[in-house]
Amino acid sequence: MSVTALNIITNTGIIDYLTSIRGYVVLTSHLLYLLEGALLTLKITALSVFFGMILGLIFGLFKLSGSRILRFIAAIYIDFFRGTPLFVQILLMYFGVLPLIMDKPSPFEAAVITCSINSGAYIAEIVRAGIQAVDKGQMEAARSLGMNYPQAMWMVILPQAYKIVIPPLINEFIMLLKDTSLVSAIAAEELTQRGRLVYSTYYEAVWVWGGVAMIYLVMTKVLSILGEYTERRLATE
To answer: What domains lie within the chain, and their CATH numbers?
Structure first.
């Protein structure tokens, strides 16, 4: 092997080594910064899940209502937010709708509102399916005991539907956690946005985005484990 070829190989190896060391240092020195973004991601997800469950329950019941008006309202809401991309909804809400009803909405507020409404549309269908999966005889039995429709729904049907919808709800929560990465488009400083800021400074794609991916993986895995634990507990009750 010639001296020139040896030098090229040696220099390339040194460059690769130094690059890997630099990427490691960038990731470790900004890990706390990324974890703070992950915390904001969890906050957005938790709030969106909370409000989404409320909206999902309301519009899920609307979908099963005997009122044509309520069913029509639920159908419009569910079809729109399930039929359009979340990314487009975020841009529409932040730049178009929210400025009309709020004074300078923050990216965080826009993220929570949009993700809540979007999640509510999916949860509404989960709730509807769960209620319909409960034996119709349960409602008839409750009514025969003197309960009115709201009482029977709240005290008899919904507790049984709750156990049925736990698996798809957990899956929806995990999907929402990952979908929060889209709010980086409006500069909400969650995990993806902070990863983008670090990358734009150091251009260490493998280390920065690899670190971001691993943080997402840990969060979704923890949610999956909690979901499986909840399913096992409910199965034994």
So the answer is: 3-236 (1.10.3720.10)
